[in-house]
Structure formats: structure tokens, C-alpha cells
Amino acid sequence: MEKLEKIINLAERRGFVFKSYEIYGGVGGFYDFGPLGVLLKNKIKELWLKDILNMPNIYLIETPIIGPRVLYEASGHIENFYDRLVECKSCHKRFREDHLLKGEYGEIEIKDNKALCPLCKGELTEARNFNLMFKTFVGPVEELASESYLRPETAQGIFVNFKNILNSMRAKLPFGIAQIGKSFRNEITPKNFIFRIREFEQMEIEFFVRPEEDEIWFNFWVEKRFKWYTDILGIKKENLVKHIQSEDELAHYAKKAIDIYYRFPFKEDEIEGIANRTDYDLKRHMEFSKEDLTYFDEKTKTKLIPYVIEPSAGVERILFALLCDAYDEDEVPNEKGKLEKRTVLRFKPAIAPVQVAVFPLLSNRKPLIEKAKEVFGIINNSSIIVIYDETGSIGKRYRRQDEIGTPFCITIDFQTLEDNTVTVRDRDTTKQERISINEILDYLKDKLKI
Ligand code: GAP
């Protein structure tokens, strides 16, 4: 099995990710997140929030998913947010023109000046624009006035709150407004597991700056965000790439953008984009809403329209990158000392969805079970994410935890009943240490760096 297949298989088997509506055959581009997937997504969001909210000038908000047509006329999404779609006249499979041109389906055959379908060699249609936004109507009447869209980015909810934050928080430049929430894109070809999906979560910051300081803050955010992936999430530096967007890659609102790419097993691709959106959005919303969205600069006693630097990351893509980065196979001794193959997710301890597992050595000895539940209770009362497991041999239980990346397994054995110590097994070294139950919380917090 290829590495990618193994990762997807593990993710589905162990409760990270499931295909949505699978019992009805599934719907392309939609995924459910199981218990471990949710824990991991929560960790990603928690660590993102922790990292940005320790800056003094970032304000977190939450805005609706559905927005009126006028919002997306102003933002330029109705006019510009499309992909070029090509369809096979024979098998009716649809493709993104840019994916065909980039060679993602191999070399495209041309016959009688017509491009042929890479799958069935049928004739392809001319490319046409396909808007990626999901359309809906607010209220019972389906008319232009009630036409609305599911947001394709959380950013627009932020821009329309610019004045509210200025007034309510007395914000001073430079400052940021941040939001975490679902976004929707009717992707033509959702693919590569959870890489390109139709419903996903974004973590975005619109950072408002004086126009002349845009370069400084752009560089600041590129560096800060890159460091977050390596130092906080523990992603290997060699698997990350800074990609400078070319002129034809830039979104309609951007003057400059640098993407952070992860080297996925299928190809290196974007997990986060940092864009200089200039004053494009505030200007457009001023024009369409007729509201004054300028900033009064106390220093110069003049009005200005701030520029915006936007770091925008996708939670599911980061989760996918974390799974790929952590996935490993090695050999470790089993209970009889014989080397055995194992699959292990080497998450940095602070990011692991489950941080500690507690086992009684045997599942048919009441004193061991009682003590193990007591230890579980002590840890569970802290902020550490802990599970209890008494099924199967100890070796099997270790393997199960290795496979989901649990950094520490605690076993309650007969010695525990005598001296109140437990064994703590390290996922990566498989070495065990004996620690007193009285010291277990401090020991774990130190190891988990929390
Ligand atoms: N507000 C700017 C913006 O939305 P983007 O580069 O289109 O910029 C930002 O998206 C991030 O959102 C991407 O880096 C990616 O992580 C995530 N994202 C975008 N489209 C996605 C999709 N179809 N599936 C999963 N994640 C997606």
C-alpha cells in the first residue's frame, strides 16, 4: 500500500475522518470528523488562538455563514470567484481547466484541434466560468432580493465589522480581527481525501495596517505563521515550503501573496496563504454600502483607508498535514522481546489528540482496575486528554495507542498496589519509567509542555 493510502486507511479505521453520508453512497467533497479528528481539530484551533491572542491587538469575532448577494457583489466574489470548467461530451466527467493544463491528468491528447478527455478520449467542451459559491435564498420567496451565498471565506464577515471593532474596542492601527469558522466552496473536483473539500473550516486574520507599513507586516506574518507550523505544531521544516504566488495565481483582491505549502505524499500544496489585500475590500464595501469605513489617524489628523494583511489557514488541510508528518512505521520488541512491525503517529506531545492512556495490567483483577480508574480520574481532572483501556493484552493496547499517536501510556501493575508507583511508557523510545502517583500530574505536564 502507498503511504497516502495507509494514512487514509488509518484515519478512517481509527476514528479521525469518515466519508459523509457513506451509508447513502457518500457525497463528494464532504467529510465527517470522528472523535479523534475532532480532538485534533480542536487542538489546532486552540493552538492557533493561543498564538495570535497573545498579541495585544487581535480581536476575535464570529459572523454568519450566510451572507446577502450584495456582500459578495462588493467583495468581487460574484464576478471573480470562479474556476474554468471543462466537461467531457462523452463521459460527462468535469475537470478544472488549470488542472488539465498543469498536467495533473497526464498529457492531453489533441485530435482535429480538439482536446480529448484524459479518461475516455471523448471530446472536451470549451472552458466556461463556474462560480464556486453555493447559492441559497433567505426567507420563503426565491427572488433576487433574497438571494444569498454560503461564505467562501470568513473574511467578508470581518471586513463588514471593521467599524464596529474600531468603535466598540477603540482599536488603533495596527490591529487584527480574527475569526474561525466554516467556509464553503462548490469545488469542481474535490480530491485528495480532505485536501480539497466543499465544506471546511478556516482560521483567518485580517490585520489592518497603515498603507506604508504593508511590506513590514506582510513579512512579519509570513515568518510568524511559518514558525507556528514548525515550533508549535512540530511539523518538520523540510516538509514545508514558502511559495510566492505568481501574477496569474493571485486572487482578485491581492497585490502579493506567499503560501505555506506542505509536501503531501501526492504533491506539495497550500495549507495557508498570507496575502496583502491592500485597501481593496474596505474600499469596495464603502462603495457598495455608502458607509464611511475610513480610519482617523490621531498622529497625522487625517483619514486613511488601512491596508490588510491576511493570514488564512484551513483546519482540515493542517490536520491532513499533521497526519502525514506524524506517520511512521518501525519495529519494536513485543512482550516476548521479539521485534514486531508497528505503525506509529509521532505527533508532538502537545498536539496529540489523546495525550495519555491508562491501563490496568490485567482486566480481571479488581484491585488493579480500581487503582487504574483512580489514576485515570486524577489525570482526567486536569487539562490532559486521557483515555482508559482494559481490553486485550498490554502489547496490543500499546500498539493501539501508538497508532493514534498517544505519547504516554501508564500501566498499573502489582507493584503499584505495594508502592503507589506506575510505569510510564514513552511512545517514541518505548522505554518505561516508574513514577509515583503523587507526582504523575507534574511529570506529565512537564513532558507534554502544557
Ligand atoms: N480569505 C482568503 C482565502 O480564503 P484561500 O487561499 O482561498 O484564501 C485559504 O484559502 C485556506 O483555506 C487555504 O490555504 C486552505 O488551507 C483552505 N482552503 C481553501 N479551499 C479549501 C478547500 N476546498 N478544501 C479545504 N481547505 C481549503
Keywords:
450 residues; alpha+beta; BirA Bifunctional Protein, domain 2; Rossmann fold; 3 domains; 5-stranded mixed beta sheet; 30% strand; binds glycyl-adenosine-5'-phosphate
Q: Low-confidence stretches at least 5 residues in length (pLDDT < 50)?
A: none
Number of strands: 26
> What coarse outline follows from CA principal-axis ratios?
globular
Percent helix range:
25-40%
N- to C-terminal distance: 37 Å
CATH architecture annotation of the largest domain: 2-Layer Sandwich
Corresponding CATH superfamily of the largest domain: Bira Bifunctional Protein, Domain 2
Q: Please identify the structural class as seen in this structure.
A: alpha+beta
Number of separate domains: 3
Query: Looking across the biggest beta sheet, what order are the strands in?
Result: 3-12-13-19-16-15-14
> Sheet with the most strands?
7 strands, mixed
What is the helix tally? 14
CATH class of the largest domain: Alpha Beta
Rg over C-alpha atoms, rounded to the nearest angstrom: 26 Å
Bound molecules: glycyl-adenosine-5'-phosphate
CATH topology of the largest domain, anyone?
BirA Bifunctional Protein, domain 2
Proportion of residues in β-strands: 25-35%
Mean pLDDT: 96
